[in-house]
Amino acid sequence: MNSFKVVLSRELNSYFATPLAYVFIVIFLMISGAFTFFMGGFYERGQADLWPFFNFHPWLYLFLVPAISMRLWAEERKSGTIELLMTLPLSLRAIVFGKFFAAWIFTGVALALTFPIWLTVNYLGDPDNGAILAGYLGSWLMAGGFLAIGSCISATTKNQVIAFIISVVICFLFVVSGFNIVLDWFTSWAPGFLVDSVAALSFLTHFNAIAKGVLDFRDLAYFVIVIGGWLLATAIVIDLKKAS
After folding, report:
1. CA-to-CA distance for 99 and 76, rounded, in angstroms?
2. CA–CA dist 11, 94 (Å, integer)
């Protein structure tokens, strides 16, 4: 636990010690607001909910989260500090989880700073705040899924740009696997259970259910499994790279 705290503190300090963190937060807040109030038709809908806000989160995270995760390991490998990090009396598990949770907490801070949108919808109407809270939880879990994927990809390369591009592609596949156009293609030749399996892999399928206020254990478990699986893959990749 102490090792985890050391890595977590180190990574969090590195985020907020540079202006890039604040630039990211400002960009996230500006784009979230623009999508909600302009592209999402927040006022035109005439409904007291934050669906226009949450509806764009998968697409926001698709590019912004890999921009965070690409540096997790690629920067360490390029600068050579990963060798020093591995010689310290820290377990590989503590390092992997510490770096991931630092990035996840940072993303959570950016998400929490959108609270004025929540206040706005409460000022204008009488929303279901339980559903909104569930939407925030689902959004944060989805961001964790994107980060875990990006962490694993970042561990495979020294090049942050390559890590970013590959992460975006893989995350995009996880998002669109629930789209009708994709499922219709599978339906034309694949058995029903395979079509259902592809749909179940989609971030959208599980996030949309949570964002509507339905906290189903299967949706929560899905994100936990995705995060855990990709972090395990990250540890395996780091271990293999260390041995080679």
Report:
1. 11
2. 12
CB 21 within 8 A of CB 105: no
81/91 Cα distance (integer angstroms): 16
Residue with tokens 């510490």: 98
Nearby residues of 179 by Cβ (< 8 Å), 6 or more positions away: 202, 204
From residue 238, how far is each of 31, 86, 127, 244 by CA, in Å? 34, 10, 46, 10
Query: Which SS3 state, helix, strand or coil, does residue 214 take?
Result: coil
Cα(72)–Cα(104) distance, rounded to whole angstroms?
A: 11
Q: How many CA atoms lie within 13 A of 25 on its CB side?
A: 18
Question: What sign for the dihedral angle of Cα 228, 130, 61, 67?
Answer: negative
Q: How far is 200 from 214, CA to CA, in rounded Å?
A: 16
pLDDT tens-digit map of 60-87: 999 999 999 988 888 877 777 777 777 7
Domain range annotation of the chain: 2-243
Section 162-175 average pLDDT:
92
Total count of residues recorded for the chain: 244
Per the structure block, which two tokens stand in for 244?
């080679």
